[in-house]
């Protein structure tokens, strides 16, 4: 029986329960650390990766899914005549979406497969995936679902606090500007991704900067509390969820108890570039 199926990559922040409930297909990226390559979510868990990263002297590397894997996945999902909406992490962060577009061409199924650049990653990508899956389950058409995704993209927000610049500098994602600030004492930076472009929004020193970051985001949520239904807090930490982030989630619930807040480790792909201690707050308005 044909239907509309949802495809994404493993950088999307989705719980196992969400993936199962909405029958979402996830194509995993891979990570290499200390000479060993692991398939994200298949051969290594998020916690295992962070443990290995904390012990490694070299920056891990990440790889997009092989085109052949995406081709096989598309062929499998469309063999019953179903259409597919594939939502992937921002092009600026990975070549995954280009690989997906190439895979569509190779399968000759461009009439059945619709590829979307989420312009973000993590829970923001997850918001789009979940919206598409819920819309499909509700019987909406492909144009309706794609229009809904675009609407979400226009108001989505990512605020990422990086407290240790080592990984993001080595990864080269910030360009020459990063080299100018790396030697500043105890520097921390806030990254944002407006329209899919990574930029340094603010920089400062120490815990004072982190506290101001939290307050600013809470003020944003307060100002939009009736328009926000979901917030994601994703983090990189070795061990259990930092109490600070659980407290932050509670402050959001105190603003509006109807807001769903998911606090969860980010994927190895994002952890590699964000580094230890980083955390992000993600939401969109309706």
UniProtKB/TrEMBL annotation:
Q: What is this protein called?
A: DegV family protein
Q: From the Swiss-Prot or TrEMBL record, what is one GO molecular function term?
A: lipid binding
> Which region is the signal sequence?
none
Look up and give the organism this protein is from: Lactobacillus melliventris
Pfam families, from UniProt? DegV
Keywords noted in UniProt: Lipid-binding
Q: Does the keyword Transmembrane helix apply?
A: no
| PROSITE patterns in UniProt | DEGV
